Amino acid sequence: MVDSIFEGCSDSCGWLAGIVAALAYGSFGVPIRETKDIDVHPLVFQSYKTITMFMLSWLVIFMGIAPSWTSWGLVSGGLWVVGGTGGVLAIRMAGLAIAVGTWASVMIVINFLVGIVLFQEPVSDMFATLGAFLLLALGLVGMSLYSTPQPVDQPPSTEMTENIGPNQNEVEEIDRALIVKRTSSYTGKIDHRDIQRRNEESGSYGSSADADEPLFTIQTEPKEKDPDQ
Known about the structure:
Elements: H1 2-7, H2 11-27, H3 29-34, H4 42-57, H5 59-62, H6 71-94, H7 96-117, H8 126-147, H9 158-181, E1 187-189, H10 192-202, E2 217-219
Antiparallel strand pairs: 1-2
Helix pairs in contact: 4-6, 6-7, 7-8
């Protein structure tokens, strides 16, 4: 039944199958792009596709098609695994637009040349074909050139610097004072002049608070002695 359908089909079936293949090949990279941040090896990701293909391939038996063996199937499967693994890497590293656009354009050129040179498929207009190749090459270069994000050097925000800078200096001053002054039992005030002197020695400068005002006070309850000792 299936054989009779394909035998009676004209070129329109080939165009329809080509459109379906283009939609499938053009969109199968979307799930790969969505899992970019997941730590999965490309070969493992490719194995998911291979297992799915293996499970679906058994449907031909239920369609009434007799299975046949050819060594070219192994060659095609090996190339498909290599190409699929490289596609996963390309999407993760270069992005979906550049990766799919690049390999789709190169696939067209390779398949066309193999069809003409190896299988001697007829070409109705060679000059129009060469013109199409030229337009394809220009589109590939333009797409790859303008789809690549350009790094933009932006100065840090003034508001962010003003909000973070003083707080960071105060934290550094507090940490430095705690390291120097903290003991097991201590009650007192840390003079700002001592911190300013340490800032000058380390090359960093804190806030411009009044030196007579204490920066902060550390109060720790003295440790009670054990009456048995």
